[in-house]
Amino acid sequence: MSPLRVAAWVAGVALLVGAYSMGHHQATAEGAAALAAYQRGVAQDAAREASARLDRYHAQAVAFDITAHQFTEDQARAKADSDRVAADLRAGNLRLRDRWATQVRANEVAIAARAGDADAAPDDRAASAGRIVRAAAECDAQVRGLQSILSKERE
Fold this sequence. Notes:
There is one protein chain. Helix 1 (3-91) runs antiparallel to helix 3. With 155 residues, this protein is an all-alpha fold. The chain has 3 helices and no strands. The radius of gyration is 42 Å and the shape is rod-shaped.
């Protein structure tokens, strides 16, 4: 083989290797750029999701705070209602139903038989009625609060 042919042959192989290297480098650069763009998109999606999750959490916390405040007000209202019922019963502004009145009359007979403090019976009945009203109102307030929390949580 002549030296000119060998030189041409070496030059051709060098040209092929160079072209391959350029193509490989270009593909690697394009792949790295595509991967970086994909990673940026994933990071942006994750940031948006985290922000949305934080917004939902904050809205839920505000709703729970409002519910807790309403529950506290309902508890105070239950206490006031029970005190009002007891006071109205003592003052005669409120009367119990007949089925309670029958029980009251039977209780008065038992109290008179014991020769105890007969004047305490109306106060005991009024206080008991007030406690019943308060317990019912507190239960209602608790049910409303729990239902509100569940509905806010499921939104």
